[in-house]
Amino acid sequence: MLEVKQLSGGYSGYSVLKDISFHVAKGELFGILGPNGSGKTTLLKMISGLLPFKEGSIFIKEKKLSQYTQKELAKVVAVLPQHSEHAFSYTVKETVSLGRYAHQSGFLQTWTEEDEKVVQKVMKQTGVEVLQNKNLRELSGGERQRVNLAQALAQEPEILLLDEPTNHLDLSYQKELLDILKTWTRDGTLTVISIFHDLNLAGLYCDRLLLLKKGMINIQHKTNEVLKEDRIQEVYQTDIKKFAHPKVPVPQITLLPKWEKEEQLEAVKITADILQHDKQHIVLKSPIPLKTMSSGVVGAGLGWHQTFVNRHVDRGYSCSNHQEEMMNYLCERGFDPLETVGMMTAVVLDDVSYKWMEEDTLSVFVVVTAGVGNAVDATQSENHSSAFIPGTINTWIFINGKITEEAFIQGMVTATEAKVRALEDQKVIDSVTGTYATGTSTDSISIAATQRGEKHDFAGSITPLGKLISKAVYMCTRESIQKSQKRK
């Protein structure tokens, strides 16, 4: 659809772009990235025919750009700028109708039935049909941008060029605009080439990306390859972290602020001094947010949490939506659910066991509530019902140090291995199968790290961190089971 070969050029003899070559296939949503001054807008102006280039060539549908007349080009390529100021007081429909100029002929430029049909169609597609009789000056910035998009689409182009189309738009309009464009490119009815400042939007919507640096191509590839941490840090000269989008398989980028590095110098330790418990719940409030991986009723997954609540419920607890009920419970008691890891247990909370373990500069604090009333052998789980039972063995592991995501996962494995050994040593039996239990049907665990101090990449069972986790979890699980069993 579009091919750029060895393109060079710029303004007033100054070469902004140097030896740019790439192609865009039909139906692609192709993104152009790069820091300010890297040549993004210059490239788009050359493709649209607004700016001559010094060397190279541009082919649109296998035909040289220079061979198109202005009207011919307007039938194939439309441009949506960052923002468009209209000198005259037009209505929405009049503004959109300007896009039909390329399709009109004759001295009087007669308005046809086909022109009217196309204008009404694109206004409906972009959601401005109900605004068609309003003056542009009465519209919000997002509404004007949709009108500009409708005007570009009224040209019935095959290629749409966009210069930071979401600039100055709020989140809902950004999503709405890009959702529309993505739908049309997937249908094959439109090819989109767009400049993006927002790397996350580019990663979320684009099929491929072109990254410019100082007027030259750094890379052109699929989004996951372009948005690599080391590459983005080098091109944009800033600290970032790459992560996976939580819902779709695309890369996302987050900035790492300078103050985050400065705070690493402050020593913070999670100890028994800040643990509180009564008959209703066990609570630990950290002085700082902790990076957490959890299977709690509330706060599950990977995140940052400052409060940890293990709540006692009756053995007969039953609720159609236990997550919502737990969130209400937290709110009623002044805990913010967004900052809290919340668990439930039918265990008497006085049977809690906790241990502080330290080796050199590394330390962990582990808290366990454990009962074995619904003990299960995981290898024989098909013999059990799947009814919800409040968590019986709840484990909290607090790490006073910085750990990787790999260490979070390994820490959970290590803790589970230690818990299973404690159950075996206490000769806990699955009452249904008569075999040794490996846990209970709804065990829950959280690992939380201060992310300050010495970094630990691994938490396997024979690593320094893993040794502390396994010993503390084993001792706490065994002790808590013993306390619980004495009540029978």
Could you provide a short overview of the structure?
The protein is α/β, with parallel strands linked by helices. The protein has 13 helices and 24 strands.
Essential attributes:
30% helix, 8-stranded mixed sheet, 13 helices, 488 residues, alpha/beta, Rossmann fold, 6-stranded mixed sheet
Descriptive report:
This protein is α/β, with parallel strands linked by helices and 488 residues long. The chain folds into 2 domains: 2-255, Rossmann fold; 272-486, L-amino peptidase D-ALA esterase/amidase (4-Layer Sandwich). Helix content is 30%, strand content 29%. The protein has 13 helices and 24 strands. The strands form 6 sheets. Strands 13, 14, 15, 16, 17, 18, 20 and 23 form an 8-stranded mixed beta sheet that branches. α4 (113-125) packs antiparallel against α5 and α12 (405-425) runs parallel beside α13. The radius of gyration is 31 Å and the shape is elongated. 41% of the residues are buried.
